[in-house]
Amino acid sequence: MRKCLVAVMMLVLVMATVSSMNIKSDNEVIIPIIHHIEEQHEICAKGIKATPPITKSNFFNDVEIATSPYDEVHPSVAGAPPFYIAAYTCAMADNDKDICVAVSMDNGSTFGNLITFDYDGEQDYPSLDCWEENIFYGTFRADPSKAYVYLVKMSGLHSEVTYWNWGPLGWYDIKEPEIACHNSKNPWEYGVIAFVASTTYPGQRWDNIPHMMFADPVEPNTAWISWAYYSGALHATADIDKTFNMMYCAYDWYNTNTGKYNIIVWKRSFTDPFTYEYIYLIPRYYNAICPSIVAEGNKIAIVCQSDENGNQDIICLYSANGGATWKKSFVVYTQDNEMYPKIVMHNEKLACFFVSNGNLYCSY
C-alpha cells in the first residue's frame, strides 16, 4: 500500500481538505540571541560527476503519477509554468530506495519521462527548487554510509548530477537536505543547500550540527560547506530572499539552556557569502521542531511544530526586520496533533500545509 502520492497529487488532496483554522496571535516581541560569526568555519571541495539518471518514456495523468507496487514517499514539487517537476522516493526495501522525478511541460496536465536516480543503497528525501524558467535544481540524501551531497540540474528532460564527497575530510551522517535557488549571479551558483551532519573536522567530534553548502563564486564545480557549532540539531530548511540577496537556513536545535528544542536561523549574504553572516537563536520554553522557512523583502516566516499546549500544534515565528525581532502566532491549535508543516509563498501570500489525523490540510 502506498504511503502517499507525489506532490502534484498531494496539492489536489490539500485543496479538497482545506479547513477553517483558528488563528491566535501573540503580541510578545521576541528578542533573539544574535551571534555575529567572525571566525569562518568553511571548507571547499571539487564536485564529482555522477552517472546520468535512467529515463523511461511513460506518461501519467494529473491525478496519480506514482504507480509502482512499492511505497512512494517524501514528495517534493517545483514549478515555473508551464514546467513542473515532481520528485519522490520509491522504496523497494528498507535499504534499497531510489529517487524518481516526473516532468510536465504542459502546466501539469501530463507528466512524462520518469527519471530514476538509481545509485547503490538508499537515496531519500528529495528537495527541488526553480532556478529560472525551465531550469531546476534538486538534491537528496545519499545512502547513509556515504557523506555525499548531491546536486541535480534539470533543464527540460536533460539532467546532470554532481556530488561532493565530504567523508575524507571527516564528515558523516548527513541528514535530509533542503535546497533554495537564486539566479542573480553566475550560472553555476545554484543557491544554498541546508542540512544537518556530524564531523570530526578539524580533530574534534561534533554531532548533528547545522550546515549550509553553496557554490564558489569564482570557480565552477567547487562548493563550500559551512558549519555552526550547535550540537543536537534535527532538521534543516532553506530559502533565499531574492530582493536582498540573503540566504536563510533554519534548524531545530536542542538548547541545553532551556532544555527544549529551539529554532536557529542562519543568515548569510548570497552576493558575498564570506563577509556577512549572523545566527539568531530564538529561545522558547517549549519544543519547536520541524521548521519550514520562507523569506522575501527582509521579512521571514518560519512554521514549526510546538508542544506549548501539551500536544502538537503549528506556530509561525515571523520577523519583519531581517531577524532582529520576532513575533509568534498560532497557525492551528486543536486537541488533535498537527504535524510536519510546510510553508509556501505566492504573490506575497503565505500558505501552510500540515498533517493531522492522517489528512493533509492547508491554512492561509
* Backbone structural class: mainly beta
Poorly predicted runs of 5 or more residues: 1-23, 59-63
Number of helices: 1
> What's the average pLDDT?
86
Helix content: under 10%
Q: What is the percentage of strand-forming residues?
A: over 45%
Any idea what the radius of gyration is? 20 Å
| Terminal Cα span | 31 Å
Along the chain, the helix and strand elements come as HEEEEEEEEEEEEEEEEEEEEEEEEEEEEE
Shape: globular
- How is the main sheet built? 6 strands, antiparallel
Number of extended strands: 29
Q: What does it look like?
A:
The structure is a single chain. The chain is mostly beta strands. Helices cover 3% and strands 59% of the residues. It is built from one helix and 29 strands. Strands 3, 14, 15, 16, 17 and 18 form a six-stranded antiparallel sheet that branches. A five-stranded antiparallel sheet has the order 1-26-25-24-23, with no helix packed on it. Strands 2-22-21-20-19 form a five-stranded antiparallel sheet, with no helix packed on it. A hairpin with a 2-residue loop joins strand 10 and strand 11 (135-141). The model is unreliable at 1-23 and 59-63 (pLDDT under 50).
Q: What's the arrangement of secondary structure elements?
A:
Elements: H1 7-16, E1 24-30, E2 33-36, E3 42-46, E4 48-49, E5 54-60, E6 71-80, E7 83-93, E8 96-104, E9 111-117, E10 124-132, E11 135-141, E12 148-155, E13 158-165, E14 171-172, E15 178-181, E16 191-199, E17 206-215, E18 222-227, E19 233-241, E20 246-255, E21 260-269, E22 277-282, E23 288-296, E24 299-306, E25 313-319, E26 326-332, E27 338-346, E28 349-356, E29 359-363
Antiparallel strand pairs: 1-26, 2-22, 3-18, 4-13, 5-9, 6-7, 7-8, 8-9, 10-11, 11-12, 12-13, 14-16, 15-16, 16-17, 17-18, 19-20, 20-21, 21-22, 23-24, 24-25, 25-26, 27-28, 28-29
